[in-house]
Amino acid sequence: MSPIKFSTTETEQLVTKIQGYFSNELDQDLGQFDAEFLLDFFSKEVGAYFYNRGLFDAQTVIAAKLENVAEMVHEGISEIEKPVS
């Protein structure tokens, strides 16, 4: 898997969220560099877990939609199917 890369804007937003979390939940100030380092760590070490979960969830949704389509096609065929003897 290729490394997870965020745009500059995404990185800024994520760093702000990390800093906010540390400030609000842990009552600690976290500098920009430390927050970016932590973001890089999580991207490398746990990012694949989130990515794989997203793929699994997408696959589940797509499979359900395809099942619905298959049912609709089957129902449609029975409505237009010509009788045979």
Short overview:
This protein is mainly alpha-helical. The chain contains 3 helices and no strands.
Question: What does the model show?
Answer:
The protein is mostly helical. Helices cover 79% and strands 0% of the residues. It contains 3 helices and no strands. Helix 1 crosses helix 2. The longest helix has 34 residues. The chain is rod-shaped. The chain starts with 7 loop residues before the first helix and ends in a 5-residue tail after the last helix. The mean pLDDT is 92.
List keywords for this structure.
85 residues; mainly alpha; 3 helices; rod-shaped
Computed structural class: mainly alpha
Compute the separation of the termini in Å.
Answer: 56 Å
In the predicted model, the low-confidence regions spanning at least 5 consecutive residues are none
Residue share in β-strands = under 5%
Principal-axis shape equals: rod-shaped
Average pLDDT score: 92
The helix content, as a percent range, equals over 70%
Supply Rg: 24 Å
Q: H/E element string?
A: HHH
Instruction: Give the total of beta strands.
Output: 0
Biggest beta-sheet profile = none
In DSSP terms (H or I, runs of 4 or more residues), the helix count works out at 3
